[in-house]
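Slide 14.
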Amino acid sequence: MARLPEIDPQQATGKAKELLDGVQARLKIVPNFMRAMANSAAALDAYLSFNEKLSHGLLSAKLGELIAVVVADENSCEYCLSAHTAIAKMVGLNEEQILAGRDFNLGDAKIDAALRFARDVAAKRGQLNASAIDAVRNAGYSDGEIAEIIANVGLHVFTNYFNNVVKTEIDFPRVALRAAV
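Slide 15: predicted structure.
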């Protein structure tokens, strides 16, 4: 059971209602984590804004979802792993590609380097040496793309921690964490 109540969009008021109604209009659903996050309109607004801005950045939607999957695995967030696996499929990745991305073995050295870098940023809490930046840069990423990989990790750390603390009920097809496999 979730540790924070999930706000019913029909019962929400003020800014929270406005935000939840916007999510419903765009996605045709309101995921449980957004319902829980709506306990603070400021938190939900911050998440939605950050996510929206990054969706118009330099990284492809596929790479963004693979980063989300890798970070969710690293942070043991089964909710986010399940959600982003479903979204990854919606943006054109298949099950084999998602699993290969989780293993940094897509067969594309550039993408694999970005995913390793994202995992390392999360695992080491940003405490990387210069060689980590050099490696992802040498794989072909621009400084802008590197900044966005880091920003994506930050966004997903926020949602991972939120869902891990709240124990959000998973409302996507459940995907097992690496540790549980």
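Speaker note: The chain has a mean pLDDT of 97.
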